[in-house]
Design a protein that fits this description.
- The structure is a single chain.
- The chain has about 525 residues and is an alpha/beta fold.
- The protein has two domains: about 25-205, 3-Layer(aba) Sandwich (Rossmann fold); about 210-370 and about 460-500, Dihydrodipicolinate Reductase, domain 2 (2-Layer Sandwich).
- It contains 14 helices and 16 strands.
- It has helices at about 35-50, 70-85, 95-100, 115-130, 150-155, 185-200, 215-225, 255-280, 290-300, 310-315, 430-435, 440-450, 460-480, 500-505, and strands at about 5, 25-30, 60-65, 105-110, 135-140, 175-180, 205, 240-245, 315-320, 340-345, 355-360, 365-375, 395-400, 405-415, 420-430, 485-490.
- It has a ten-stranded mixed sheet with strand order 1-15-14-13-12-8-11-10-9-16. It has a six-stranded parallel sheet with strand order 4-3-2-5-6-7, sandwiched between helices.
- Helix 1 packs across helix 12, helix 6 packs antiparallel against helix 13 (about 460-480) and helix 8 (about 255-280) crosses helix 13 (about 460-480).
- The longest helix is centred in the middle third of the chain and has 26 residues, at about 255-280.
- The two termini are about 20 Å apart.
């Protein structure tokens, strides 16, 4: 019998939130790459939503920095047009747009031009006086990773990055970098060394938009605020865990970039390993940033290495049909657009529980979720004696990250009637519907946390290097014949059939896409 939906009533409690830091300090945000796609689609809309909701500092300014010549008026109009297309709240409040765009000023120059950064410093001093931002500066590098070292060097050379020697030091200087945080372990260490030469680790915010999604954050609340599930969250009760990140689109004209990256660098090393860590970590001693990040790092340290000839037994990769005809993709490319992996965590809690990850482009649907598959009942009581013999389905707890954010729990129930027939039902909580509130975009939360200095949802240096330490040997094997076949799969499919062998070896199967 197909699972049936069961309504769940939620009871939001009034009062002060458990954790609330209020408005951040006054500050100036310097956005490198201000004319890029990320800035237009995500960053300016997120900042606008924060401004509209009254969450930005009262004294706040944005410096839009670009290598191409910018002027304040035309660029503000450019931002306004972008908000019409990409802002979450529509229709736009014209007065709110005007107030927001008036906070934007522009600066131009090469990333390697000392004079340009000297002018930037003078502008920041002027803004601090005019807009009373107290000299607090937040730098956002929404630029290609290849530019990171040069920008850091130029900021340092102009005296615009100042190491904080003690907690709470003001004025503060913080730096946000977009993924990828390196291309492999060696390059990640080199990038971290460059960052560490200019700033203390607590001033560096490695942003991963997946960690800003409400339902990813809710994993911690769900696990540690409910006594019913945490006692079952271990190898005694869980059979396996499945993490899926499926995209229905292809490389969308970004073939050159993607061919240098691939699905493992693009999705697994950062997004999915971070989600895995939230699901697998031990309870932290507090909800403080470093306590949570300490526990996540322990998960990365406990990942069982997969190297060399072991890779084909644990990793299946594929390319969608027509990938090598995409503009910018090299002929004969082995870059995967799909990956399925079996991972093991050698810890007291998870020993013997496989974690299956899969991610890919041009799949049947867009879907990101975590499925916790509990063990089957030990014996089948409901057979014979007038009951219909049937196979009972294990309980599955599904944490939906996108597109329909929520949590679902499947369980078995008796079907009405004289005979004992059993069918599956599903209790399903829709996140936005249950709380009657729109789900904010990830960048809104993450930008606000950066201004507040809250690093909970950001990757720390040791975790980045631990994750790369696990992934790099797999990538090295896959780039040679030792990594096995790169399977071809049809667009709009579930991926290559060979991926089914990973769970089926142990009598399991992927959830249906």
């Amino acid at each position: 019998m197909d699972a049936q939906g069961v309504h769940i009533e939620t009871h939001p409690r009034e009062g002060e939130p458990v954790f609330s830091a209020g408005r951040p300090d006054p500050c100036t945000l310097v956005l490198f790459g201000a004319t890029g796609d990320l800035a237009e689609r995500k960053l300016f809309p997120a900042l606008f939503e924060l401004a509209r909701a009254g969450l930005l500092p009262e004294n706040f300014a944005i410096v839009a920095y670009s290598r191409s010549k910018l002027e304040d008026g035309p660029f503000r109009e450019h931002v306004k047009e972008g908000l019409k297309k990409f802002a979450r709240t529509q229709p736009l409040d014209e007065a709110a747009v005007k107030r927001f765009t008036e906070s934007i000023e522009t600066a131009s120059g090469g990333y390697d031009d000392p004079e340009a950064f000297k002018r930037l410093g003078q502008k920041l001093q002027d803004l601090s006086k005019r807009r009373k931002t107290d000299g607090n500066q937040l730098y956002y590098m929404a630029t290609p990773a290849s530019t990171f070292p040069q920008i850091i060097q130029s900021l340092s050379g102009a005296g615009l990055l100042k190491r904080e020697e003690q907690p709470g030091q003001k004025p503060w200087h913080r730096l946000i970098i977009e993924k990828p945080f390196g291309h492999d372990l060696e390059s990640a260490k080199a990038l971290n060394k460059t960052l560490g030469s200019a700033l203390d680790e607590k001033q560096i915010f490695r942003i991963d938009h997946y960690l800003g999604k409400e339902t990813v954050q809710n994993i911690l609340v769900f696990r540690f605020a409910n006594a019913i599930f945490e006692p079952l969250w271990n190898r005694q009760h869980i059979d396996h865990v499945e993490i899926t990140a499926a995209e229905a689109i292809g490389v969308e004209g970004r073939g050159g970039f993607y061919d240098e990256t691939g699905v493992i660098r693009d999705m697994v090393q950062n997004h999915l390993l971070q989600v895995l860590a939230l699901c697998a970590m031990e309870p932290p001693v507090s909800f403080a940033a470093e306590d949570i990040r300490d526990e996540k790092n322990k998960v990365f340290r406990a990942l069982r290495p997969v190297e060399g000839g072991e890779v084909p037994q644990h990793v299946v990769v594929g390319q969608y049909e027509g990938y090598q005809e995409e503009k910018g993709v090299k002929k004969g490319s082995r870059t995967p657009t799909y990956v399925a992996m079996k991972m093991n965590i050698d810890s007291w809690r998870w020993q013997g529980v496989p974690f299956y990850l899969r991610a890919g482009k041009n799949l049947k649907k867009r879907l990101t979720e975590v499925s916790i598959h509990f063990k089957s009942v030990p014996i089948g009581l409901f057979s014979g004696g007038g009951a219909t013999c049937q196979r009972l389905q294990p309980n599955v707890l599904t944490l939906r990250i996108q597109p329909h954010e929520g949590i679902a729990l499947s369980f078995e129930s008796k079907i009405p009637g004289e005979d004992v027939n059993i069918g599956g039902v599903t209790m399903d909580m829709d996140y936005a519907e249950s709380f009657k509130k729109p789900v904010p975009e990830a960048y809104e939360r993450l930008l606000l946390d950066c201004m507040r200095g809250n690093a909970t949802l950001f990757a720390r240096q040791d975790s980045v290097e631990q994750a790369w330490g696990y992934i790099t040997p797999i990538l090295q094997a896959l780039e040679t014949d030792a990594g096995g076949t790169v399977h071809t799969y049809a667009k709009g499919s579930k991926g290559p059939d060979a991926a089914d062998a990973l769970p089926s070896k142990n009598g399991r199967r992927w959830s249906t896409l």
